[in-house]
Amino acid sequence: MFNEDFIGRIAIVFAMTVLATSGAIPLFLYFRQDTSASSLAVVTQLASTVFLLLQLVMTVARLPPKGTAQGIEPRVTSVAGTFMILLALSLTPALQNEAAQVTALCLVLIGTASSTLCLYWLGRSFSLMATARRLVTTGPYSIVRHPLYICEAVFVTGMILSHFSLLMVALGALQFLLQYRRARNEEGILRQTFPEYEAYAQRVPMLLPRFRRAAPAPGQ
Q1: Residue 68: φ, ψ to 5°
Q2: Containing domain of residue 123, as a range?
Q3: 80, 135 in Cβ contact below 8 A?
Q4: Could you tell me which residues are beta bridge partners of residue 67?
Q5: pLDDT tens, position by position, 26-44
Q6: Is residue 215 included in any domain, yes or no?
Q7: 197 near 135, Cβ under 8 Å?
Q8: Residue 212 domain-assigned?
Q9: Which of 40, 131, 180, 196 is surrounded by the most beta carbons within 10 Å?
Q10: pTM score over 0.90
């Protein structure tokens, strides 16, 4: 009998395969024939495709869960937080402003490239749902506890600018709220599963890095 983690893995693999394929097709057409696509747009699309493929690989190879958040809310939040931006893009047209589009592409590229780095560092611990597989505290995870969400926020900001409208801003704000709630759900199950997580959480900030060293304790 298939367990929940296996079913979730199949669903994620299917979704990421579809998204990666849809992203790879424009790249294939670009390299096969002369198009009007800008180099920045092509590099951004390539980075997005690599990020999706890496998610696909990490989902297939991920470690078995040691703990999973219970209830429907963490699952709905995870799915909505992952795919809300796609809904937003389908409901709002692109802004017809070259300067805004170039800025948006830069943000998307920065967000995607940095997200790829965080995902690579997270490795086989990656999961869309609030699941504890292995505690990662090094690399970007030694700066903030949720670097992947920070990098994805840069990507979403670029998408908001690219399709700027009142609806896009509202959906983007909802995306940020969902991701924050998603991070809280993850922290809950990590605290339950790994006793050392509390010390890690006290040492490393959740979302905003500390740019100054903590004051030394008296007598040091």
Answers
A1: -140, 135
A2: 4-203
A3: no
A4: 132
A5: 656 565 665 555 677 777 7
A6: no
A7: yes
A8: no
A9: 131
A10: no
Does 211 fall in a domain? no
Report yes or no on 218 lying in a domain.
no
Task: Tell me the C-alpha to C-alpha distance, in Å, between residue 47 and each of 20, 30, 106, 111, 130.
Answer: 11, 15, 12, 10, 26
Which of 208, 38, 57, 22 is closest to 109 using CA atoms? Answer: 38
Separation in Å, CA 169 to CA 49, 59, 85, 174: 25, 30, 11, 9
The tokens of 66 are what? 């040691």
SS (H, E, C) the chain: CCCHHHHHHHHHHHHHHHHHHHHHHHHHHHHHCCCCCCHHHHHHHHHHHHHHHHHHHHHHHCCCCCEECCCHHHHHHHHHHHHHHHHHHHHCCCCCCHHHHHHHHHHHHHHHHHHHHHHHHHHHHCCCCCEECCCCCCHHHHCCCCHHHHHHHHHHHHHHHHCCCHHHHHHHHHHHHHHHHHHHHHHHHHHHHCCCHHHHHHHCCCCCCCCCCCCCCCCC
CATH number at residue 85: 1.20.120.1630
pLDDT digits 0-9 by tens, 128-153 = 888 999 999 999 999 999 999 999 99
